[in-house]
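Batch 3, record 17
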Amino acid sequence: MSRPVAPVPASAIERFDGEADVLVVGLGCAGAAAALDAAAAGAEVLVLERASGPGGSSALSGGELYLGGGTPVQQACGFEDDADNMFAYLRAALGPHADEEKLRLYCDGSVDHFGWFRSLGVEFQESLFDAPTWMPPTRDGLMWLGENAWPYDQLARPVPRGHRPTAEGFAGWLIMDKLVAALHEAGVPVQTDTLASALVVEDGRVVGVTARGYGADVAYRARRGVVLTTGGFVDDEEMLAAHAPVLLGHGKVSDGLDDGSGIRMAAALGATTRRMGSVEIALTALPAAMVRGMLVNALGQRFINEDVYPGLFSSAAVKHQPGPWWVIVDEAGWESIPERDLWGVRPTHAAETLAELESELRIPDGALQATVEVYNRHAARGDDPLFHKHARWLRPLEPPFAALDPRLGFAIGRGSAGEGTGAAGFTLGGLHTTVDGGVLDVSGREIPGLFAAGRASAGIHGEGYISGTSLGDGTFFGRRAGRAAAR
Amino acid sequence: MSRPVAPVPASAIERFDGEADVLVVGLGCAGAAAALDAAAAGAEVLVLERASGPGGSSALSGGELYLGGGTPVQQACGFEDDADNMFAYLRAALGPHADEEKLRLYCDGSVDHFGWFRSLGVEFQESLFDAPTWMPPTRDGLMWLGENAWPYDQLARPVPRGHRPTAEGFAGWLIMDKLVAALHEAGVPVQTDTLASALVVEDGRVVGVTARGYGADVAYRARRGVVLTTGGFVDDEEMLAAHAPVLLGHGKVSDGLDDGSGIRMAAALGATTRRMGSVEIALTALPAAMVRGMLVNALGQRFINEDVYPGLFSSAAVKHQPGPWWVIVDEAGWESIPERDLWGVRPTHAAETLAELESELRIPDGALQATVEVYNRHAARGDDPLFHKHARWLRPLEPPFAALDPRLGFAIGRGSAGEGTGAAGFTLGGLHTTVDGGVLDVSGREIPGLFAAGRASAGIHGEGYISGTSLGDGTFFGRRAGRAAAR
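Prediction for the assembled complex:
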């Protein structure tokens, strides 16, 4: 059974163990950004974190930041971008039903936000990795995240916007290191091992939180506002079952503490939520193999252009297509992948003919052959009339053939590295907030004194997701929430 | 902006305009069932209804009741059923993630529940309509609702459970007539033109509602409990955008008043919701044409066995496949449909060859031909290895060919008759309740004095839907909620 989260009247608190202008609950990227900007606005800030150290799920993430509109890195790599162009892409890629008001602000403020990261000491190498991938096998600071794939290349001028701090592999920790260093420099205290349990309310206004710290019940008072940056709810099985059952049974991209506690604390006060069913889900497939071949469902049917952002083919497969799914490649395609040995992924099946491969993969007789026949006929002309994969990746597939299991790849979530379902994800829905983080109640009114940002809130996303938009909107709207709470 | 729904403290109510043991808010099928069983349990009951008369969306529905386990109608038609068999089908068909606890009770109590309808004077003709359809063009009282289609025929012994009151066409009004007549007979007063606006609370217990009636603000006291049977939220665009955006822009299967008011009133008090993104969505296609041909997506790919429950092919298309979708038939198939002239649906395209038809339908060159080639090769052997359509409907398609637009058909929702998207639906998510209708808060505790049933609550459904389960679970759990509130 879930922990009780009913709001506590201030009159029931005998004494507060601490007090600040702004209380920030949860120290991932959104909490750090909120605390920094609240402090910069002159507020006395106190951060509460349930774990023994800062970082949350942000620190375990890949570290991509979705930024554009003409950042110095984009410019150095020779790309012209603007806020409208960025908006046009994200509206489509995060949709359907992206939050256009938040998205507009996010795009308009993106170059400034990039500058903020640089000012904190986050560095970006000014070079592009130019092929579809989950993560470049290089230190390149810029990468494509689906902008140059159909139909997005028709909706906006394709420019890459995946910004990566200079690091090998996962880089979320590096961003959190810089954020936490800035907090220390700003003199913002962080109370770790302190699990917020309920909101404290006085005359309809949120004025603090109760918490469990070092085995004792404690309470903290907020003179101006409480900012909930407690993360999503992928780690709470009850909430998943109620709101996002599509993730049940899959791996979890989180630090294990994304249990939706902040969402529940606010909902107990009548806060409303938004898009609780929206999720990101990722297959750990090798995009480099996929673009050179084809991705098919259990019936041998293609269903998407293989050069899209990898999260998109993952969602298309897991949410919409019968599995198991297969990546079909030919020998020449496989051999042409520069990084083919990097991830330790190998074909699981090989065959001289498609009929043999069909039989091995238990695809109905003739179904894969029909798919490849149509694909090859058009690919010979550099065309993909079904899904419009870019001509760069199109040529007829020829024997011998091989198949890869797209569920096998490098680990991007707990339990995702080739075990279980081979898919892992996290939740995108949460508290319904204004663009300044004000939490709305079910009557559509802001709850006085209560703010939220990051995955505890519903951000810029509709039903779609692009890497870098979590750290991106978490920090961007975290800063706005911090400033609003400080007022 | 939404109407405010914040709970009102009882101390703020100067005087109550009425009082009863049990207040039922909303007079559709769930409200009528709750009121009848509360009254039968000895409670004094008052029903509030916002419209000028009873009925709600229930009265406008088709009138199917999903019942089984061995009803007299099933027995008279020669079918043996039992509760376990019914449970096995519904768990799969209403899933994934159906509410198994509620479903178990629903199946175990189904024969009794059938008897309750008969005791109210609802009559069922003891004959079967034996082909896939949205609604039999006959007065047959029993129909298949997907039980005999793959994979369900493998998971449970196929028996039909769609029960229809004896009537031509839509029969929801007939069921509501009988329920309302029983209410009158039981002496339960109904206050129409009374729109509940907020819950009245005293010491954490729901003790009444405020409402708007005849231009005046009124309040009613409930000595034992309030039962919310206010319907779903398909008519509230803000709630749809927040929770079930897949329905935005589509037609609405409702009476126009399903604005989620009861869900919001309870959520303002910290009630939790469940599966707010689950929806039923229906294309008005002609199932009789579809089973004799094939349903393909915009790329000429099949994606489901065409003999499933029509709501299932609709959901598969709208939620998961690129449109426009097409029903491909051949002349012999079309001519063999007994009721082909009944619904006024005609093929929109015809061609001597599949290549011509592809071109007319803007399907990529060769894609439909490949689909039909694979289909025909297997159909000649009475086999459908891709989707397992029943052999009864399998034979190779031969020229000349025709295509029907599955968005054109008879109207099943406002705005659905060939206008707009040709799809219409309603919401399945709502308040999270116990099996006795007790509304749970976000801490998992029952809110004293508050109950809910029907589409204001999350019922037996997971992400799937079957006709007859709304009137079915609305009345079944409405009765349980009424009895619990009367205690």
